Amino acid sequence: MGNAKSSNSKKKCKLPREDMDYLLEKTCFTEKQIKEWYKGYMKDCPEGSLTRSKFLDLYSEFFPDSKAKSFYEHVFRTFDEDNSGAIDFKEFLVAISITKSGEPEEKLALAFRLYDIDRNGTIEEHEMTEILKAIYSLVGREPQLESSPKERARSIFKKMDTNCDGVLTKDEFVQGCLKDETLFNMLTTNNCGISTNGKDSLSE
């Protein structure tokens, strides 16, 4: 029994070859780096999945202020691409890779998922307002010193909603950001709030 448990534990600690091949193709990391990330991930998530509560606990260490919770709730939803209620290692590392060194279109696709709260394939103005409120709260901005989240969202929609139907499609969002560097930086910079300098808890 003891040997069986030890064998199962070793299998869990080793990333399956098919997952390694997938991550080598989909991320910017080398095999050695992926193994290091996996080691840190399994240390924090020995069951092999990052639950919502664990995710929030980890990031509360970096941002103890409860005001950050709303933003990281949205980040968790964005990373949990299959909507399973947990982030597996592949989902986690692909998102990290995009945040770290993805192409502009990849970063915008990730940002689109962040703003598309109900996952219906479009962004509505109230969804963008909600995310901007969470970001303002996270970084400690005082809305009265600049445009409010609602005003900012309305301004963005005026620029991006090319067919004036009240929602942003993924294409409108991506093309609008690619044509406007200010919008691109505002809507993608640190949107997932992830440390990519190797000091993230899950990479140690």
Produce a short descriptive summary.
One of its GO terms (molecular function) is calcium ion binding. It is built from eleven helices and four strands; from the N terminus they run αααβααβααβααβαα. With 204 residues, the chain is mainly alpha-helical.
Q: How is this structure best described in words?
A:
- Belongs to the recoverin family.
- This is Neuronal calcium sensor 2.
- Keywords: Calcium, Metal-binding, Repeat.
- With 204 residues, the protein is mainly alpha-helical.
- It has a single domain, classed as EF-hand (Recoverin, domain 1).
- The chain is 63% helix and 5% strand.
- The strands form 2 sheets. It has a two-stranded antiparallel ribbon. The protein has a two-stranded antiparallel sheet with strand order 3-4.
- The longest helix is centred in the middle third of the chain and has 15 residues.
- It is globular, with a radius of gyration of 19 Å.
Question: Which radius of gyration do the C-alpha atoms yield?
Answer: 19 Å
State the end-to-end CA separation. Answer: 31 Å
- Oligomerization state of this entry? single chain
Written as H for each helix and E for each strand, in order along the chain, the element string is HHHEHHEHHEHHEHH
Beta-strand content: under 5%
> What's the CATH first level?
Mainly Alpha
Strand neighbour order, sheet with most strands: 1-2
Q: Number of folding domains?
A: 1
Assign a percent range to the helix content.
55-70%
